[in-house]
Amino acid sequence: MPTPSLMKRVLVRPVAVFTVAALIVTLTGCTTSGVVTNADCDVAAQPGNLSNSVSVSAEAGTVPQATFPLPLRSTEIERTVLTKGTGDTVETGDLVLFDYSMYEGTTGEKLGTSFQEGGTPATQLLTESAGMALYSGLSCQTIGSRLVLTAPVAQILGDEAAAQFLPTLGKNATIVVVLDIVDRVLGRAAGSPRDLPNGFPVVTNTPDGRPGVTVPSVKAPDTLLSATRIQSTLPEDEQEVVASDSALILQVLAISWDNRTVISSTWEDGTPGNFASGTELPYIDGLTGKKAGDQVVVVTPGPNSMIYVVDILGAYPAQG
């Protein structure tokens, strides 16, 4: 995958997962209706009468006002590109940053948005596990594009999430989403692995970037350990340096040294962690001075010693 243009423009807003109860990251059980495979990308939803019927009053990057014939009822995913952006193309494995407004198709009611002042872009790791509506909706699009997606609520949110967070809609309701692609970053560290110093656990990676850890059969260290296992090969002007108060996008695997068990993993969660400036992270001292694109292994000391394998996807200065 080509190296993306990783945040050359420093975002003035921190990022966060989809704010309607983080619904989109829970997509499940979606079908491939309205999706085609082509030589340029894995899957891409196509325009249709319903997505083409949605009118949006503003240009990409500004707050949209969407109108459409009521009631709007969909049985498959449709995507219409309102504005084609001039930035890099989104690819499978990227972490995509986007703004959205989401509407209920029968009444036109706005269900949620990230466009309000002080709002935060949503993020989604672009893989098939993201669910077909977002996967096919974002695939092959470029940064700066504005899209309209129409689909049944189950294909946008998944059956379980729709029932939990929007129970009054019913499983056959249609959702309309106006979506601006803000940016993309790599979904994993970017560079070549190197050996860790003595005293560190053994860390490996699968081809898709997931780390694995072998904990040594020795006592946990008495002091904080930190070392770069993958050194970023992004262009120098794209290697944002982590400060103690940076807002961060991270892939994190956390393992107990003593119990040798996985405590948490953003890889298993399906989306990287987004941490606002000032978030207390037990491993932040081990990341300070590292750069976007690095993979860093941090071991915290003490009787509850933890191993953190951290891929730094993005680092943004605190907004004062």
From TrEMBL:
<dbReference type="GO" id="GO:0003755">
    <property type="term" value="F:peptidyl-prolyl cis-trans isomerase activity"/>
</dbReference>
<dbReference type="InterPro" id="IPR046357">
    <property type="entry name" value="PPIase_dom_sf"/>
</dbReference>
<protein>
    <recommendedName>
        <fullName>Peptidylprolyl isomerase</fullName>
    </recommendedName>
</protein>
